[in-house]
Amino acid sequence: MKVLVTGAAGFIGFHVAKELLARGDTVVGIDNINDYYDVTLKEGRLNALAEDALSGNFTFIKMDIADRNQMEILFASSAFDKVVHLAAQAGVRYSIENPHAYVDSNLIGFMNILEGCRHNKIKHLVYASSSSVYGSNESTPFAVTDNVDHPVSLYAASKKANELMAHTYSHLYHLPTTGLRFFTVYGPWGRPDMALFKFTEAILNQKPIQVFNYGNHHRDFTYIDDIVSGVILSLDNVAEGNENWDGKNPDPSSSKAPWKIYNIGAHNPVNLLKFIETLEAALGKEAIKEMLPMQPGDVQNTYADVSALTKDTGYQPKTDLVEGIGNFVAWYHAFYS
Asked: Rg of the chain over CA atoms, in angstroms?
């Protein structure tokens, strides 16, 4: 199977590409290698795929998904079977500082992906949504049947928009699409703008870490291997229409069109202070904590109900926090040695 993976130099995209290659698929990866964070890390991920590139199983193309002409040429010339779309402008707080980046990548870029899939007989599009779409929802655990019409950041709004755009294409053109709401992904090769990476760097350099909401957050931290498992299970489980869908009592996670929404999480929320304690134990050093109030755009807690994904694909998260953080710390020491 020939798969396009967008955001292939990114955290999740790299790991997904690596797993697809390991099972024998041919992968074309694209990424614009922007400077939202240190490009050395992105280059390191691509270097880790170099052996597959030499074998011809992996091809990397530097490309911006917001470039309509380039995207049209890529799809028309490549004969992809399926697409895993993970390229996006990420980050809740950065969306307050630079909102236009989210429109360019997450809206215009996603439109180019949909059009490429529509015109080139793609068998299944799997794309990244986010737990951020739950916004002001206070019902836990977050379920795909919950209402998500009240986002609290532009990033979240852009991901909700992706789900709606995908439904339109599934309805009009019978394009099978599956949206995956990721919950706080962490692990080796993770992003420097996320808590685990920032905390590790600061603790090792004896600098304060910023603990927002005074540490009263809970997050459903999900290890990267569990995320990749869910992505690939979803890719293989091509979305189909729900014959029992009722427009008078609509299920927000399915449709008569071939369109599905799933949560991917650990189904185990962890208090932020407990998370920090686990990291301190792995590093053998105590953090200097700067306790701060809630940041604009943040949500108090996240907690994934993954029952729909488990029912449809057999997904089961397996990695506990101690093991996952330990693996990250080992990678961090090795990469930055």
From this structure: 19
- The torsion angles phi and psi of 255, rounded to 5 degrees, stand at -165, 170
d(C-alpha 142, C-alpha 36), whole Å: 29
pLDDT tens digits for range 209-252: 988 888 888 889 999 999 999 999 999 999 999 999 999 999 99
Which of 270, 267, 285, 287 is CA-nearest to residue 322?
A: 270
Helices (H), the chain: 11-22, 39-48, 50-55, 68-78, 94-97, 99-102, 109-119, 154-173, 195-204, 224-236, 272-283, 307-313, 321-335
CB atoms within 10 A of CB 288: 11
CB 145 within 8 A of CB 253: yes
Residue 121 CB partners (closer than 8 Å, separation 6+): none
Please identify every residue annotated as catalytic.
155
Q: How far apart are CA 67 and CA 313, in angstroms?
A: 34
Task: Report how far Cα 317 is from the mean position of its chain's Cα atoms.
Answer: 15
Q: DSSP characters for 302-337? A: --B--HHHHHHH-------HHHHHHHHHHHHHHHT-
Q: What is the DSSP letter of 12?
A: H
pTM of this prediction exceeds 0.90? yes
Give the Cβ contact number of residue 67 at 10 Å.
Answer: 15
Enumerate residues 6+ apart whose C-beta is below 8 A from 215. Answer: 271, 272, 273, 276, 289, 291
For residues 135 and 124, give the distance between their C-alpha atoms in angstroms, rounded to a whole number.
28
Please list the residues that pair with 126 across neighbouring strands.
84, 178
Task: Count how many residues are written for the chain.
Answer: 337
Per-residue pLDDT tens digits for 120-166: 999 999 999 999 999 888 888 999 999 999 998 899 999 999 999 99
Is the separation of the CB atoms in 102 and 158 below 8 Å? yes
Torsional class of 25: left (φ above 0), alpha (ψ -120 to 50), beta (otherwise)? beta
Name, in order, each residue with C-beta under 8 angstroms of 73's C-beta and a sequence gap of 6 or more: none
